[in-house]
Amino acid sequence: MIDTLELTEIPKEDEALRTEIRAFLNEAVGSMPPDIRARSWLGFDADFSRRLADRGWVGLTLPVEYGGAGKGPFARFVMSEELLGAGAPVSAHWIADRQSGPLILKYGTEAQKLFYLPRICKAQAFFCIGMSEPNSGSDLASIRTRAVPSPGGWLLNGSKIWTTNAQHSQYMIALVRTSGETADRYKGLSQIIIDLSLPGVTVRPIKDLAGDEHFSEVFFENVLCPEDALIGIEGNGWAQVNAELAFERSGPERLYSSVVLVEGWLQHCRQIGVADTATAATLGQIVSWLAVLRALSISLAGKLARGESPALEASLVKDLGTEIEQAIPRLIGDVLASSPDTPVPASLRKTLVYLEQMAPSFSLRGGTREILRGIIARGLGLR
Hints:
By secondary structure, the protein is α+β, with helices and mostly antiparallel strands. The protein has helices at residues 12-15, 17-29, 34-37, 46-54, 73-86, 91-107, 110-121, 237-249, 259-272, 277-305, 311-337, 346-362, 369-379; strands spanning 127-130, 146-150, 153-164, 171-177, 189-195, 201-206, 215-225, 230-231.
């Protein structure tokens, strides 16, 4: 069953981080056009990520002995909220910081921790996630990519798809089959770290509707990964990947993909002095929805801070969060269209067009709506 989420406040010492972060972001991204800032956690900028790392803001929750800041989930929530709210280009380090690092910390060997975690904290090692496969839809358990023990390590063959930033990343953490057959479903799955520079790895970017190439298809042909590429226990990959997905689904990035558009729209309304009923109703709907979901997301950070797993609750918040993310471009577009004689600034129009193109993907990434609702139904004992 889904536990009751406790109403939680961000501790004052973590809340105090906002002032310094906002000052930095105002200087770093304040002059960027809004349609560029709207890309935010899909915006790849390695130099920006390293500037954050120089301030100790990458790997906030990782232990000091591995190069991190040793802070808790609330500090990362504040950092994430400010970065996304400003539309900072965080994509380079995001996956490594959010889930690859914590996964290695939880399941990796000491040698893996000493090698990868300091590099993550310095924004020198970027990670992508190898979960989805061609022709499998949302059925993550139907893994066909296989790694078999071979002299010198693991021999890897197969492919992954919809892999964010694979063309820019040094490493992939992939869910692969190390024993059994596809029909075995959850049994025989393991996670391995793949050095994407190894012979036999081919990365092909996929161009999306907006003309960007965030996603890639990745092919493995007789790729020999070293013995220490295995993370955790062989055959425990399904449990590990579900723990990883809890990190992916519990953060504020599932709320704020359209927030730069809201900011630009409000600025437009102030400039032209709009105070009509439709605008007020739309703003009220957006703000009330975001306020509730933000409170839920902070509660998830509270569960993480207490050492609890919010996997089930994170599925609920992610599903609801992507619903409002998708709705915001439509709601704002409808309001703007209701006043066809009122000119819309080019920057606002570009931002709206971009998010209208990207919004359909919001309920796909991190688990489709159908998969999430299946998880929620099981948690409620309905299936």
